[in-house]
Design a protein that fits this description.
Structural class: alpha/beta
Shape: globular
Largest sheet: 10 strands, mixed
Number of strands: 12
CATH topology of the largest domain: Isopropylmalate Dehydrogenase
Number of domains: 2
Strand content: 15-25%
CATH superfamily of the largest domain: Isopropylmalate Dehydrogenase
Oligomer: single chain
Order of helices and strands: EHEHHEHEHEEEHEHEHEHEEHHH
Distance between the termini: 26 Å
Radius of gyration: 20 Å
CATH class of the largest domain: Alpha Beta
Number of helices: 12
Length: about 350
């Protein structure tokens, strides 16, 4: 297979972790006889510094013509002024909207070797395997915004069509897993959530009678996610709730550095990124955890390129590296932590055991 992959390193640790993912994808391409062509482009703060816009036209054009997009992270203190007219995050939001990527998939399955890094009691984490499906292009992040000296407002708005398509995608995923869907809203006080619950109930009952649906208020869900995470299979929710809950869910895995994500639309093209931010405090120090970015590359292979065997190969390699104790600083407690590059080498070493030896780039 020949595939065009746009790489958007972004800011902070983004360039370091995307480099690791590209190394792994290159190894997989060599092992399985594929040709992946990587194009690197600017986004976020790096793009603002270079050309004054967080999503340059050249970047958008490349993404629109690629088979898939691999992103690092955007933002940092250099561009953190909340009153700034142009901010790095605007580039990411605009890219998601321009590509029609309305469904954000965030799997959470704690690795047994990393349970000690989680602040949650290990007996609560054994067997956890859930998937959060977050609506990505609607809600309060994209609503009309107003600001005056003594007032500010952000409009949260959802249409029936927006809710239908994300719930339908979540039901399809639940059907392929354990058949249980939890829809999260705030229907006791928000009109958008009342619409959400009504539409979610209808779509599940009429189109997916084999999927069991339940509803949870977002504040209750925040508690249940930590107290009894094993009970959940697929969780679907709106944009802001999903943003918050998925960061909370990272504590189940032990670190933000272990969780990948896929942003999908109706076609095969998707945007793949670790759920963590740019971590400017450790940028350039060679200590960032590359596993979430590498696992995001596995999602890229599975969803955009339909290379399931190759995706599973990467996931096994990361799992075996963790099992062997290849921990970066965010996971290590008593053992000496590995650098970003050393952790990447640990994954490549596992790939070597399955196929021919891999030579890592300098």
């Amino acid at each position: 297979m020949h595939a065009e992959i746009v790489v958007l390193p972004g800011d902070g640790i983004g360039p370091e972790v995307t480099a690791a993912a590209v190394d792994v994808l290159t190894a997989v391409a060599r092992n399985f006889g594929h040709c992946f062509n990587f194009q690197h482009h600017l986004i976020g703060g790096a793009a603002i510094d270079a050309c004054g816009a967080p999503l340059p036209e050249e970047t958008l054009h490349a993404c629109q013509h690629a088979d898939a997009v691999l992103l690092g992270a955007v933002g940092g203190p250099k561009w953190s002024d909340p009153n700034a007219r142009v901010r790095p995050e605007q580039g990411l939001l605009a890219l998601r909207q321009a590509l029609g990527l309305y469904a954000n998939l965030r799997p959470v399955a704690p690795h047994p070797a990393a349970l000690g890094a989680a602040p949650i009691k290990p007996h609560l984490l054994a067997g956890v395997d859930l998937l959060v499906v977050r609506e990505l292009t609607g809600g309060i992040y994209f609503g009309d915004k107003q600001r005056s000296p003594d007032h500010a407002s952000d409009l949260c708005s959802y249409s029936v069509v927006e809710v239908e398509r994300i719930v339908r995608r979540a039901c399809q995923l639940a059907r392929a897993r354990r058949g249980k869907l939890t829809s999260v809203d705030k229907a006791n006080v928000l009109e958008t959530s009342r619409l959400w619950r009504e539409v979610a109930t209808r779509v599940a009952r009429e189109e997916f009678p084999d999927v069991q649906i339940e509803h949870q208020l977002v504040d209750a869900m925040a508690m249940h996610l930590l107290a009894r995470p094993r009970e959940y299979d697929v969780i679907v929710t709106e944009n802001m709730f999903g943003d918050i809950l998925t960061d909370e869910a990272s504590m189940l895995a032990g670190s933000l550095g272990l969780l990948p994500s896929a942003s999908l639309g109706d076609g095969r093209r998707g945007l793949y990124e670790p759920i963590h931010g740019s971590a400017p405090d450790i940028a350039g120090r060679g200590m960032a955890n590359p596993y979430a970015s590498i696992l995001s590359a596995a999602l890229l292979l599975r969803h955009s390129l339909e290379l399931v065997d190759e995706a599973e190969c990467i996931e096994r390699a990361v799992s075996e590296a963790l099992h062997a104790g290849a921990f970066t600083a965010d996971l290590a407690s008593t053992t000496a932590p590995l650098s970003t590059r050393a952790a990447t080498r640990a994954v490549l070493a596992q790939l070597c055991e399955e196929r021919q030896p891999i030579v890592m780039r300098d």
